[in-house]
Design brief:
about 160 residues; binds nickel (II) ion; about 30% strand; about 30% helix; Tetrahydropterin Synthase, Chain A; alpha+beta; 4 helices; elongated; single chain; 5 strands
Length: about 160
Amino acid sequence: MPQENKVVSLRPEFEPMPKVYITRRERFNAAHKLWNTKWSDEKNFEVFGKCANENWHGHNYELFVTVSGEPDENTGCIIDLKILSKILKDKVIEMLDHKNLNLDVSFMKDKMASTENLAVAIWNEIQTEIEAHDCKLHCVKVIETENNYAEYFGE
Ligand code: NI
C-alpha cells in the first residue's frame, strides 16, 4: 500500500514536504481618526481620546504578510518574493500610502479605520491573488505603533 511505503521509506521522494512560512514586509504612511458617527462628540472623545482628533493624525504603518506552502523543488521558495511584493504594492500599498484611511481608501469605506479592520480589509484585497501562486495566505499583520499591532488569520 502506498500509505505504508510513505511511512517506512527512507527514500527522499516519499518524504513529506516541509510546510514553511515566509513573510514580506511593506511600509506605508497614512492618516486616520477613530470616530463613530452614530455617537455624540462627547462619547467619541471619551472612547477614542486623542485618536478622535477632528483634524486627523498619522502613523508610519508596517504591513507584514505571511504565506505558507511547500518550497518549490527548483527554486527552494514558496512564492517569488518579487511577485508577493508586487501584489502588495499594487493591491494595497498604492491605495494606502500617503492617504487618509477614512476618506481616500475604497476598501475602508464605511468602516472604522482601526488597525483590526485594516488588517481584515487588506486580507480581503490580497488573498485571491496571492493564493493563485500555489501558496496559502497565513497572516496579515498591521503595526500601527511600536506598542500596537493587529493580526488576522482569515478566521
Ligand atoms: Ni491612530
